[in-house]
Each structure stands twice: as C-alpha cells, then as structure tokens.
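Please decode residue identities from the backbone states below.
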C-alpha cells in the first residue's frame, strides 16, 4: 500500500515552500509521524530519529516519496531508533522534549539562531486584538501577544509567538511579565505555600487577574496565560529594561 501512495499537487507545492524556508541544520518533526529529519542542504535531508513501529516506517516511506518529488534526497542509513511510548503521558513528554530540541534550531532569515538573541531579557508585549470565526459561525476577539527581539547581526526586529517562546525558554521565562518597572513571576503551588508560611504577605507577591493586579487600582494588559496566577514581583534590572 505504501508503494501506491502518491502526494497530491497541493502537498507537493506546500512541501516546496516549507523545505525552502527552513535553514540548513534545522529540524523537522512532521506532526504525529514519529519521525525527525534534519536539513543538511537544499537537496539533502537526513532521518535523525524514528519510532520503532511498522506504522512509522510506512510514514517514512511516504515522506521519502514526497521529498523525492520536490527534488530532495533523504539519507536514512543510521537514524536513532526510539522505543514507542508506554503511555499517553510518556508520549506527551517525548513530543514536548523533541519539539524543544527542534526549537533550539530555529533561526532568522540570515541564519542567526533565535536562542542567541537574548531571549532571557525580553517579556511578552500586547500587539493587537484579532477577530476570529468560531465553529458555530459566531466571531470573538482574541488578544495577540508576542516577544519582540532584535537580531544582533542584522538589526531587524523579530516577533516570536508566545508558544514558540515557551518551547525555546521553558516555564521559567514564559511564566512572567513586566508591569510598573517590576518583573512578575508566577509561583508554583509549593512556592505559594512557602510564601504564605513565611509571612511575606503582599509585600512581594500578589494575585493576577485578567485586567487587574491585586493591590493596584489601574487596569493593565496582562498576558492570558498569566491570568489567575499568584506572582512574586521584583524590580527590573538595568539589563532587563
């Protein structure tokens, strides 16, 4: 059945654009395929890892067919063979780990890695409201946020999607924002318990709502993923400002 599979014209056109946009050294993990590829040149990719199952091997055969049709050769002589996950939780953790590994290879148009753009010193910024169409035909507004960084080699501004920033930097940097010259960092449940037991009160932490921060009367823009958190705050350093 695998030998009979042929990619559609639309899939071929998509693949041409997708492969061309990726930088040499970039990783690609087709969603739900169990496969990871690395781009070695514009005409050569290498199978980096494969999940050990017949279904995934069939997926790889289809990917080779697709790549061949867009002028790309796939080298698959020595991939890392990964054991299939034993549970849904393990599958999720494997996927997150692999996506984070892929994120480390993301780069700007000139090849500068995003991870090398001082991401530890940037904070989410509100960009705009956007109207989206719901499945039932109604519309709703959602807030668009991003992380603005400057490519040190070109001077160009790069706006990173919050989900992509999360993959690049993890919870430590994702679960925070700045307001009033201070950095607000979400506390875990254990950290909240310790904070309360140590009697710190609202002198160094406060609850964060949708538009208001506990103890502050003025509304402000708060990233949606920070709503309902309890945050510790501290003054921003000169490097962070």
């Amino acid at each position: 059945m695998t030998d009979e599979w042929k990619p559609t014209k639309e899939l071929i056109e998509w693949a041409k654009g997708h492969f061309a946009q990726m930088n040499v050294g970039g990783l690609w993990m087709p969603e739900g395929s169990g496969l990871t590829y690395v781009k070695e040149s514009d005409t050569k990719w290498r199978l980096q890892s494969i999940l050990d199952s017949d279904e995934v091997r069939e997926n790889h055969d289809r990917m080779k067919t697709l790549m061949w049709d867009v002028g790309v050769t796939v080298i698959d002589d020595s991939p890392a063979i990964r054991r299939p996950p034993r549970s849904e939780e393990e599958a999720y953790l494997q996927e997150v780990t692999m996506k984070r590994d892929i994120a480390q290879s993301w780069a700007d148009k000139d090849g500068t890695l995003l991870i090398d753009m001082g991401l530890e010193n940037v904070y989410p910024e509100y960009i705009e409201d956007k109207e989206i169409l719901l499945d039932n035909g109604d519309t709703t507004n959602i807030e668009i946020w991003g992380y603005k960084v400057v490519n040190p080699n070109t001077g160009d501004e790069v706006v990173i999607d919050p989900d992509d920033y999360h993959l690049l930097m993890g919870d430590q940097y994702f679960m925070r924002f700045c307001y009033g010259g201070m950095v607000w960092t979400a506390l875990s449940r254990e950290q909240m318990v310790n904070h309360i037991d140590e009697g710190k009160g609202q002198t160094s932490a406060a609850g964060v709502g949708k538009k208001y921060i506990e103890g502050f009367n003025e509304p402000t823009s708060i990233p949606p993923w920070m709503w309902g958190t309890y945050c510790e705050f501290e003054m921003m350093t000169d490097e962070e400002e």
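Observation: The longest helix spans residues 54-69.
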